[in-house]
């Protein structure tokens, strides 16, 4: 059972949320992600992709704050998704020292930079804002351990792909995990860039 080998805090959160058993996706993907491999998680809506992202990211960071540079990134399609995911992360990080930060595109970029410099463990952002932060030297990526892309299907239908490519070129020695409903050819092509030797978990 994948839940048995998670950090004790996460097991408590799951128990309090009355989540006793992993979904088919979680059962197959959590051990694969914990292995450190790059992973494509392909599954339909409501199969537990976002919960998988939360659990594996927090487990990777051992549910505790370290340093000041982000150690995990979650890219999402738009600002509304970023704010929604932030609220979900907060539920899972209560009673931990982890610092979750959303790069709200409605805020001035200089404010985002200054707040990130104060110390962040998990950064939630759109590709556009994260790329802008990197261009303005407002983000240190040297400590990144895991880079997630939530509902990555959006990369097949807008201009975020170019921002993503620029972002990943500045990142080294990091695990990449991509969640999507379908394995589009556009997503598959990322294997030639930052998703090298990726494993695919498909439900």
Automatic annotation (TrEMBL):
Q: Kindly indicate whether the keyword ATP-binding belongs to this entry.
A: yes
**Per its UniProt record, what PROSITE patterns does this chain match?**
HELICASE_ATP_BIND_1 (PS51192)
Q: Does the keyword Hydrolase apply?
A: yes
Q: Which UniProt keywords apply?
A: ATP-binding, Helicase, Hydrolase, Nucleotide-binding
* InterPro entries noted in UniProt: DEAD/DEAH_box_helicase_dom, Helicase_ATP-bd, P-loop_NTPase
- Supply the SMART domains for this chain: DEXDc
The Helicase ATP-binding domain covers 30-201
User: Domain of life, per the record?
Assistant: Bacteria
Q: Name one GO molecular function term.
A: helicase activity
Q: PANTHER family of this UniProt entry? A: ATP-DEPENDENT RNA HELICASE DBP3
Give the protein name, as stated in the record: DEAD/DEAH box helicase
Q: Which organism is it from?
A: Polaribacter vadi
């Amino acid at each position: 059972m994948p839940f048995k080998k998670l950090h004790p805090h996460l097991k408590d959160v799951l128990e309090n949320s009355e989540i006793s058993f992993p979904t088919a996706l979680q059962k197959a993907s959590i051990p694969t992600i914990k292995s450190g491999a790059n992973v494509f998680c392909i599954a339909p809506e409501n199969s537990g992709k976002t919960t998988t992202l939360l659990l594996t990211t927090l487990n990777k960071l051992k549910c505790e704050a370290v340093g000041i540079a982000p150690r995990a990134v979650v890219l999402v399609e738009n600002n509304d998704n970023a704010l929604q995911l932030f609220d979900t992360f907060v539920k899972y990080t209560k009673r931990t020292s982890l610092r979750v930060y959303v790069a709200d595109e409605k805020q001035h970029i200089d404010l985002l930079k200054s707040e990130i410099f104060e110390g962040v463990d998990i950064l939630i952002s759109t590709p556009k804002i994260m790329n802008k932060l990197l261009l303005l030297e407002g983000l240190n990526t040297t400590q990144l351990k895991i880079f997630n892309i939530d509902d990555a299907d959006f990369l097949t239908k807008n201009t975020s792909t170019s921002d993503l490519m620029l972002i990943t070129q500045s990142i080294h020695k990091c695990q990449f995990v991509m969640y999507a409903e379908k394995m589009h050819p556009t997503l598959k092509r990322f294997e030639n860039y930052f998703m090298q030797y990726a494993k695919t978990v498909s439900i």
